[in-house]
């Protein structure tokens, strides 16, 4: 909460589309558990009401430009229902983009005509953590935070695996089994 509040305050103060892109990037990461490359690849056309279609990923290369590919595995191609707070964040952000000349739904959600750069996302992560007075976590750890929230709210591990795009439930169980310590007692 402190981190995302700091990111929003920074965007409001800076008042640039780029600052808002970083805020939205981290909101998507937390509320969906998408991988970094999947967030980079998101376009406005991937949103259908309260659903977000994950169809592609972007790998950034130092030489030769970005490479757009399908996500990590077949099960990573998925549709995720978004929570209301994220829908609100995205609606606000789309209104910002709609004010840009030649805007289309083919624009990237975070970055417009070109995805945010990994180094810039990492720098923003450091900046927002410092502004919030919290420990900086890796970008990938936002994915773990999303999974932890789901598990702690009693979401079935199969749904957690589906939302994360894991190829099988064993990956999810091996990564998050420590979040289920009371299951033995409950059983």
Question: Would you give an account of this structure?
Answer:
The chain is 52% helix and 9% strand. The protein has helices at 2-14, 17-32, 36-41, 84-98, 118-132, 140-152, 157-164, 169-176, 183-186; strands spanning 47-48, 51-54, 57-59, 67-69, 78-81. By secondary structure, the protein is mostly helical. The protein has nine helices and five strands; from the N terminus they run αααβββββαααααα. α1 (2-14) crosses α5 (118-132) and α2 (17-32) packs antiparallel against α4 (84-98). Strands 1-2-5 form a three-stranded antiparallel beta sheet, with no helix packed on it. The chain is globular, with a radius of gyration of 17 Å. The mean pLDDT is 91. The relative contact order is 0.16.
